[in-house]
Amino acid sequence: MLLHSFPLTILLLSTIPVTPQWGAVGDESGGSVAAAGPVVQGRPFTMVWNMPTASCQERYGIHLDLGAFDIVENHHQSVKGQNMSLFYHNQLGLYPYISQEGLQINGGVPQRGDLEAHLALAQTQISALLRTGFSGLAVIDWEKWRPLWVRDFGIKLEYRRLSKSLVRREHPALTKQEVNSLARKEFERGTRAFMSETLRLGVRLRPRGLWGFYRFPECFNYYRKQKSYTGHCHSKTRQKNDQLAWLWRQSTALYPSIYLPQQLAGSSDATLLVRHRLLEALRVANQYPTDTHATPVLPYARVAFAHTLHFLNKTDLEHTLGESAALGMAGVVLWGEQRFTKSKRQCEILRDYIHSELGEYISSLKGGVQRCSGERCHGNGRCARRDPYSDHMIPLSDPFSNFLPDPSHDLSHLRTNFLCQCYQGWEGEECQERISSITNT
């Protein structure tokens, strides 16, 4: 089925606005929906390894002991496996895009892609890679274009130009304004079809997997060395993200990016950047929940600053991993490219970082989150800040770590500054009450 085969009259019709689903922990409506449950049973906060580090062991005999710090990994630390699978644009179906050389691959723009052939190939690939009972993270990384026309700026403008060129070729009598309008509708119709149907396929084939797109939802709060950086998302972020309601309703997990630019090393502005990206993801997760609970949010964090091999120190880890835990994320995905394993020396540096600063901080943080869940929420929920804009952090707690427990780590501190987000089947201020099923007789 070629997407550009639909009649012109249909494509020129205005789209019907989608009414958002309200009702979530902490949303504006005052409604309630259960929090996303643990990604791994019994762990309110899960760290997932998504770095291609198998070569450290295979080539150089250097072992990265992730299990010592309870970091979830695939067999042999592969980027694809039964715990975590990341699909790049050339690894799942027939993704339409324009290459760096200007070649139109698989149609070039989504409205000219062959959706039926794409889904057929994707089904074969998913079935071959993921076991029937797959319950891990399934992340699709498509970054060549964005689903909303207005957000395809910069180098992505080529998709708008090609879309308009195709419309002019097929409908030479249209005015410039009509060309632009039709091109936008055709393009957005194509992006929606490819993204939503690919998610639908994944969920149908492996329904227990956590399916979603990397970097979504976006916030557009880039750091530009502003003197008074607030971290707030772009003013139209909510409006534009709500136009993607179809995407959130198909997603069974959200994977926003919280990579830090090196200019924010050690800066409190890093917290603002991360906080507002996560708050927007939480808003989407709660506004467009699954049938039974809020959509789990697992941000992608880089172990080093963006586009560098300079690792995050404890302060930077607090600004990313710590902030994620304090806001009630289900976990964090740790990502890095192959540059981290390009040589024996680089593997040694990575190993030493994991076995010291990174591993110790993760152990301390996970211990604190586990303790907060147990003491504050009876193990039936996840802790999250009462005031998401405050700087209260979940106290670190790990007897095997070099970090000492925070002196404020007591139940009074947790009750004052953190609330419980109860898992499905539990309710009450401390998730102490089991919800009984009510059936009509």
List its salient traits.
441 residues; alpha/beta; TIM Barrel; 2 domains; four-stranded parallel sheet; 11 helices; 13 strands; 35% helix; glycosidase; disulfide bond; GH; EC 3.2.1.35
Number of helices: 11
Roughly what is the average pLDDT, rounded to an integer?
Answer: 90
- Count of folded domains: 2
Number of strands: 13
Largest sheet: 4 strands, parallel
The helix/strand class is: alpha/beta
Q: Overall 3D geometry?
A: globular
CATH architecture of the largest domain: Alpha-Beta Barrel
Distance between the termini: 48 Å
Rg (C-alpha, Å)? 23 Å
Secondary structure blueprint with pairings:
Layout: H1 8-12, E1 46-50, H2 54-60, E2 71-72, E3 84-88, E4 97-98, E5 104-105, H3 115-129, E6 137-141, H4 157-170, H5 176-205, E7 210-213, H6 237-242, H7 245-250, H8 269-287, E8 300-302, H9 314-326, E9 331-335, H10 344-377, E10 381-385, H11 411-417, E11 418-422, E12 426-427, E13 433-434
Parallel strand pairs: 1-2, 1-9, 3-6, 6-7, 8-9
Antiparallel strand pairs: 4-5, 10-11, 12-13
Helix pairs in contact: 3-5, 4-5, 8-9, 9-10
Structure description:
By secondary structure, this protein is of the alpha/beta class. It has 2 domains: 162 residues, TIM Barrel; 212 residues, TIM Barrel (Alpha-Beta Barrel), CATH 3.20.20. 35% of the residues lie in helices and 11% in strands. The protein contains 11 helices and 13 strands. It has a 4-stranded parallel β-sheet. Strand 4 and strand 5 form a beta hairpin. Helix 4 crosses helix 5 and helix 9 packs parallel to helix 10. The longest helix is centred in the last third of the chain and has 34 residues. It is globular and about 70 Å long. The N and C termini lie far apart (48 Å). About 6% of the residues have low confidence.
